[in-house]
Specification:
Elements (H helix, E strand, L loop, with lengths): L22 H18 L4 H12 L23 H14 L4 H26 L2 H18 L19 H19 L4 H4 L1
């Protein structure tokens, strides 16, 4: 079976016609761009769907300019699930893998939050400074450059832990682990 030629929206085109960019495809790309922009601002999928329908009906202003050569069809509607699919397509179109894409989106959000806190930080507002530190710590954790937490085991009065005490604690922990796995084997481990 021969593979049939298709238009940009997936519809089959006639062999004697050139490939064309359809109105449906143009609107779909705009929806992807608008969704990505609004997700960066932190909006939910349902709110984005309502916003896009408001733009299509002329009740709201778009965040991303709507192409003038692509009018919305009469009674245009979009569901929350369709907005989610558009967001996923928009993320995939970016040059990174999914985990990196979401990290990139979170980084942009962190940058926006930190930028919003700058005036309070410069004035010395302790709450703004505290929140700014938390934003930076979250960003460091997202990007994987947060220093690992140092854990020390100490003995009595904060001194060093004796090796014998450490071995005893390990044996007790292993014994509890075996008991948790299979209660019928308690006689075998003791």
């Amino acid at each position: 079976m021969r593979k049939q030629s298709r238009n940009s929206d997936g519809t089959i085109r006639r062999a004697d016609h050139s490939k064309r960019l359809t109105n449906r495809s143009i609107i779909a790309r705009w929806v992807e761009a608008e969704t990505l922009h609004l997700k960066r601002l932190g909006m939910g999928y349902q709110a984005i769907a309502e916003h896009i329908m408001g733009v299509a009906q002329g009740r709201q202003r778009p965040m991303v300019p709507v192409p003038q050569d692509a009018p919305f069809p009469e009674g245009y509607r979009i569901s929350m699930q369709a907005v989610h699919r558009a967001f996923r397509r928009a993320i995939v179109r970016l040059p990174n893998a999914e985990a990196v894409e979401l990290r990139k989106l979170d980084n942009e959000r962190c940058e926006d939050m930190y930028l919003a806190l700058q005036s309070g930080i410069r004035k010395g507002d302790p709450r703004c400074v505290e929140v700014g530190v938390k934003v930076l710590a979250h960003k460091a954790e997202i990007n994987g450059y947060k220093a690992p937490a140092k854990v020390e085991m100490t003995g009595k009065q904060g001194g060093p832990l004796a090796i014998e005490t450490f071995r005893k604690l390990c044996e007790e922990a292993e014994g509890e682990e075996v008991e948790d796995k299979d209660p019928s084997d308690r006689t075998k481990t003791k």
